[in-house]
Design goal:
82 residues, 2 helices, 4 strands, 24% strand, elongated
């Protein structure tokens, strides 16, 4: 993990602003979705990427019962159901 040297204070609602320089360098547009992770005492905020719920693949996704699934997993499920 790389330190940016940037320190921000949480507001009274627990919000923090991601500095514009970081948003620009990470190509994060206004209203972009972010994912929040924890690792020990650290909170990690990253760009959200749609992934297959079964294998984590980010390509060839389709919706199935309001979940994202890749075509490879969908084909594997089709073989099981047959």
């Amino acid at each position: 993990m790389k330190s940016t040297g940037i320190v921000r204070r949480l507001d009274n609602l627990g919000r923090v602003v991601i500095p514009k320089e970081l948003r620009t360098s990470l190509d994060m547009l206004e209203y972009a979705n972010v994912e929040i992770f924890t690792e020990g005492e650290y909170v990690i905020i990253g760009k959200f990427h749609h992934k297959c719920i079964m294998c984590g693949n980010e390509e060839n996704l389709t919706d199935f019962n309001n979940k994202r699934i890749c075509l490879d997993c969908a084909n594997q499920l089709g073989k099981i159901a047959a």
